[in-house]
Write a structure and sequence with these properties.
CATH topology: Alpha-Beta Plaits
Radius of gyration: 15 Å
Order of helices and strands: EHHEHHEHHEH
Largest sheet: 4 strands, antiparallel
Bound molecules: inosine-5'-diphosphate, magnesium ion
Helix content: 25-40%
Shape: globular
Number of helices: 7
CATH class: Alpha Beta
Strand order of the largest sheet: 2-3-1-4
């Protein structure tokens, strides 16, 4: 099954949205396989957001993501990457549909509450950046027959 990297950003943590956000992924039927509560170092932030290095918002983005704790997670499921992206909504909360995480909880593009990998390559890169392979938990979700045909 596909795995994706998801993070609740410092704004989501500060605003007390950890439980609400995790609950959405749980209710969807995705399986949590790794999770930790961490401060992102400058070095990790630079690597994680490396593709945006030349963008005008890069400096603020790195400052923001290192400004307070984040919840780093790996979720697994059929089409987990695109499922999470759909549940998060568009990057700018203003454009994100109601019912998506960013649509329901955000206003500003620089405070959009969650991160989710945008494809198989970034998922692999991001999971490996944030987690040791020993931290990924291999477990059987007993209700799987009620989530998948
Ligand atoms: P994504 O998070 O939906 O994948 P990306 O384009 O990869 O969006 O951008 C990474 C993060 O950088 C966004 O989630 C957002 O927090 C921030 N960001 C993107 N574009 C802008 C912008 O134009 N101004 C400020 N911040 C931005
Ligand atoms: Mg992205």
């Amino acid at each position: 099954m596909e795995k994706t990297f998801v993070a609740i950003k410092p704004d989501g943590v500060q605003r007390g949205l950890i439980g609400k956000i995790i609950s959405r992924f749980e209710k969807k039927g995705l399986k949590l396989v790794a999770m930790k509560f961490i401060l992102v170092t400058n070095e990790l932030a630079q690597k994680h957001y490396g593709e945006h290095k030349e963008k005008p918002f890069f400096k603020n983005l790195v400052e923001f993501i290192t400004s307070g704790p984040v919840v780093a997670m790996v979720w697994e499921g059929k089409n987990a990457i695109s499922t999470v992206r759909k549940m998060m909504g568009k990057t700018n909360p203003f454009d994100a549909e109601d019912g998506t995480i960013r649509g329901d909880y955000g206003i500003d593009i620089g405070r959009n509450v969650v991160h989710g990998s945008d494809g198989p390559q970034s998922a692999e890169k991001e999971i490996n950046l944030f987690f040791e392979s020993s931290e990924i938990v291999d477990w059987k979700q007993d209700i799987q027959n009620w989530i998948y045909e």
